[in-house]
Amino acid sequence: MSSYLIFIGIQAVGPFVAALLSPPHKVQRSDQTSVKIFLPQDLNIELKAMWKLICRKEILLLLPMIFQSVFSEAFFSTYNATYFTVRSRALASLIGSVCVIAANFMLGFWLDWQKITLNTRALGAFVFIYAFETALWIYAMVVTKSYESRAEQVTLDWTSDGFGHGVCVYILLLVGFNLMYDYLYWLIGTVNKNGGEIIRLSAVIRGIESAGQAISYGINSIDQAKFALSGAVAVNMSFFLACIIPAAFVIVKVGIVNGVKLHAIAQDDEPEDAARAEGAVDSGRAQEMLRVSHQKS
Q1: Which of 73, 145, 202, 248 has the CA that lies 20 to 30 A from 64?
Q2: Predicted TM-score of the model (pTM)
């Protein structure tokens, strides 16, 4: 009960803390440029802009990846609660969180390393994360199948034989989940065209993610006598593999303008540029990005 009260209190304070945030026009980037966001004031215009954004080819191709990005959360949470004692779950969560922090820092350094092109960073992270998670889901299938084949329910404490073997599934899935999540938001930032659009993209991401979470938690809530955890692994792996090809069509083109690979993400800040960006990259802006890229090469 006390835990719920703490969460309720944090949510109640949230709106007042958010009011302390600086408005966009008072924010400066590291290069001293200001942040400009131009949003339509009319609801109909905003709805049309949102619909046009969702219908963009690259966004449609990324929707399966967005849906899948948080789908695994329900599985590894259920896995942890099913096969481990309370104190071993706490230990696994602590170790997993430390590993997540370290992994996210390394991913962040890679994605922000401007000595190599955006395209190389995008492809490198994509290949690593998907290879890592593919191997991880195979590992999870082997472990859950071995637990399900035993006559008695498996409950592991940190003193139990095989604890390290089993807890690695949870810790590595937690790391893979967070790597995918962070990479997805970085990737969305590369296809964003202006300040107003990133707000709409964030809304799309959260909406699709929530749908994925609702379905995944529904699947994992089924009685394990009727639907074993290995079945949940199979569902997760299926969704995971299904989104590789659509996402790859977008990722292979990240950071490439007129055949030239760029080193930095460039966005349109002016309202007229933002309007043109709905259909195509403004040629003048593209030439400027190419010039910056050549200087850095």
Answers
A1: 145
A2: 0.75
